[in-house]
Amino acid sequence: MIRSLYTAATGMMAQQMQIDVVSNNIANVNTIGYKKQRAEFADLFYQTMEYAGTATSTTTQSPTGISVGLGVRPTAISKIFTQGNFKETRNNLDLAIQGDGFFQVQLPDGRIAYTRDGAFKLDSNGSVVTSDGYKLIPEITLPPTTVQVSIGTDGTVSILEAGQTQMQQIGQIQLAKFINPAGLHSLGSNLYINTSSSGDPIVSNPGIDGLGEIRQGFVEMSNVQLVEEMTDLITGQRAYDASSKAIMTSDEMLQTVNNLKR
Known about the structure:
This protein is an alpha+beta fold. The chain has two domains: 3-81 and 224-261, no CATH class; 86-220, no CATH class. 22% of the residues lie in helices and 32% in strands. Strands 7, 8, 11, 15 and 18 form a five-stranded antiparallel sheet that branches. It has a three-stranded antiparallel sheet with strand order 12-13-14, with no helix packed on it. β12 and β13 (156-161) form a beta hairpin.
């Protein structure tokens, strides 16, 4: 069987994965805190018919050898944690991180998850939670008499209660960062959990130990650049077409061989 049939098939499967990743990026172009993904590939091993340096005579050697590649394989789909654009909302519970770091939230099973989505809300108890109701860690709870909330760039949470004239500090927001954020495992819903690849979280106050600062009244939008994704979509489609043409050409060659008997 012609080797190119299988080689071209690996190219089609690889480009299908590329299209899948790009499509997910485009779908999340307006998702708060979303970080774009990138598919990465590597060539497969080579079938060697003649090694470089093989003697071709008593005084000469093959300068390059003969090796035929067997296609391509996916090696990783990595997250790109570059800063997204900020969008002003003027909502006191909307928070954006300028720089490195993640907000910490508690999942229903007790695990700590990490997110760049700072569109927080209040639950029925006055606790600051995500859109899915997961509590911000360390927990911040606002009294029912709160009329104003102020969150500093260093994460200090201060409130003004009804009948009072001075702000009082009620909590401190902390951020977490990782040696290798690309190693975090995505749970969906803008949440990540740490893995052995990401390393353990380094937790501190905003603006300390290399962590970013908090900006109240803003959210961080997706870092997807739509023009880049559309370009990648086109190149992926054309590469898929080219691989399919290679399969068609190989098939025509086989048909020619089969017709030799006639």
